[in-house]
Each structure stands twice: as C-alpha cells, then as structure tokens.
Specification:
This protein is of the alpha/beta class. It has one domain: 3-Layer(aba) Sandwich (Rossmann fold), CATH 3.40.50.720. It has a five-stranded parallel sheet with strand order 2-1-5-6-7, with helices on both faces. A hairpin with a 2-residue loop joins strand 3 and strand 4. The radius of gyration is 15 Å and the shape is globular.
C-alpha cells in the first residue's frame, strides 16, 4: 500500500483548535516566533516555514541543540535559553516528543503553542491550554498565514 494513502499513519484528530478568526488575530499580533526543531537543511519544512515567516516580518528565534546558528542568527539549545518574551512557539518535533516540551513552553509563557502539520498530541496540548496558552495542532503556520492574512 502507498504510505501516503495509509490512514493508519495519520495523526489523531486534534482537540480544541481555535477558530480561524482567533488564529488570524494571533498571527497579526505576533512579533517573535520561536521555532523548535528548526533545520538548516534545504527541503526541510522547518527551514521553508521559518524563512517564509521571517520574510513576512516575524523575528525568528531558532531552537535546535544541534545547530550553533541558523541563517546567521544564534540558535538556542532549548526554549528555556531563548532571551525575552515569545509570542508563538512553533514546533517541528515528533508528536511523542511534544510532551517533553510542555514544562518549557509553560515556563516561557508564550501566547500560543503551534504544532505543525501532522503533529498532534492532545494530552500535551491540554496541559499547555490549562496554563492559559492557546494551542493549534496539525496545521502549518505558513499555510494558515497565507490563507488568513
């Protein structure tokens, strides 16, 4: 069977995603976006998305312990080490790894946590929401920005 058609590989349905209006408002208000799992490798979604966001006026705060810098910007080994406030935490990690980020996200207090397309972890999302942080799951911030803004 073609892997792209194998429904057993699809993520579970995301619970509690905000309406389009709230997402559009968040994207308009945001200035600083921390990108967890950013890559410098061509063809990687995190690279393309971060460049798109940067081209649209957002300050990108790269987070990847394997990189010293991204596009000439210091890369932080963890969200805890990103200086200053963050409006959106954009996550490019496997769904099972999102739970490991919950404490860091809650400590950083962004307005939004954004799990990219294909990433759903309803348990972690519920914990983040309980701390007063809005969560989007299984959506691409680049696609949503292009569609809504």
């Amino acid at each position: 069977m073609d892997e792209a058609c194998d429904i057993s590989r699809r993520p579970p349905a995301p619970e509690g995603n905000p309406e389009d209006g709230a997402i559009a408002d968040a994207l308009r208000a945001a200035k600083r976006i921390a990108v967890i799992g950013i890559s410098a490798k061509p063809g990687r979604a995190s690279l393309d998305v971060a460049r798109y966001l940067q081209d649209h006026g957002y300050e990108i705060l790269p987070v990847n312990p394997m990189l010293k810098e991204w596009e000439g910007i210091e890369c932080h080994p963890s969200l805890n080490e990103v200086p200053g406030p963050v409006d959106i935490v954009d996550i490019f990690r496997k769904p099972g790894s999102v739970g490991e980020l919950v404490e860091e996200i809650i400590a950083k207090k962004p307005k939004w946590a954004w799990l990219q397309l294909g990433i759903v972890n309803n348990e972690a999302a519920a914990q983040i929401r309980k701390a007063g942080i809005k969560v989007v799951q299984d959506r691409c911030i680049k696609i949503e920005h292009a569609r809504l803004i």
